[in-house]
TrEMBL record:
Name of the featured protein: tRNA (cytidine(56)-2'-O)-methyltransferase
Pfam families: Trm56
Localization in the cell: Cytoplasm
Organism ancestry: Archaea, Thermoproteota, Thermoprotei, Desulfurococcales, Pyrodictiaceae
Role, per record: Specifically catalyzes the AdoMet-dependent 2'-O-ribose methylation of cytidine at position 56 in tRNAs.
Species of origin: Pyrodictium delaneyi
Length: 189
């Protein structure tokens, strides 16, 4: 899908990070946002707190590596989920206690409704399990929320997200069997 965006085929997808603890979770939450961007989400929402470190890191990546993604922080997570549902979207909560991704991904993928993927940090309140249209597990073992989001988005987009070309990029990696090849695109923009 060079040049195209998975949202054109599968609909709008936002990722809501809940339970972020600024002193403990900066790196992991930043990685949740990076995976959301790289794997084709249209937006990243940091619920209940605003961590400038996380948001500045994501803005910097967007500026340098291209693409567009709505970034929000400090929104009330419960209200955001309720409004998302009220506006005809569906909520997918990633949890190791949910239904196996392979058992529900076809149904989720077939729905044209906008999708809000909820990714927790600390213990997730019962509200999010109850409000979710789908509680989805990437296996039923303890694992990283970053890995869960990456696997879920890959299954949702059927691997097409790995070929996204981000408009407005200032740099680009040239695939290489050895070494690092990064080229500047500044002359082209």
């Amino acid at each position: 899908m060079p040049g195209g965006h998975p949202a054109e085929r599968y609909g709008r997808v936002y990722v809501l990070r809940i339970g972020h603890r600024p002193q403990r979770d900066k790196r992991i939450t930043t990685h949740v946002g990076l995976v959301a961007r790289a794997f084709g989400a249209n937006g990243f929402v940091l619920g209940d707190v605003c961590d400038d470190h996380v948001m500045d890191s994501l803005r910097g990546v967007l500026e340098r590596w291209g693409g567009s993604m709505e970034l929000l922080c400090g929104v009330n997570s419960r209200r955001y989920v309720s409004e998302w549902k009220r506006n005809c979207g569906e909520v997918i909560h990633l949890t190791m206690y949910g239904l196996h991704v392979d058992d529900v991904i076809g149904e989720i993928r077939a729905s044209p409704r906008p999708k809000l993927i909820v990714v927790g940090a600390e213990k997730v309140p019962p509200f999010f399990y109850e409000a979710a249209d789908y509680n989805v597990a990437i296996g039923n073992q303890p694992h990283s929320e970053v890995a869960a989001l990456a696997v879920f988005l890959d299954r949702l987009y059927e691997g097409r997200e790995l070929r996204i070309e981000f408009p407005g990029a200032r740099v680009k990696i040239l695939p290489s069997p050895r070494g690092k090849k990064v080229v500047s695109l500044e002359e082209d923009n």
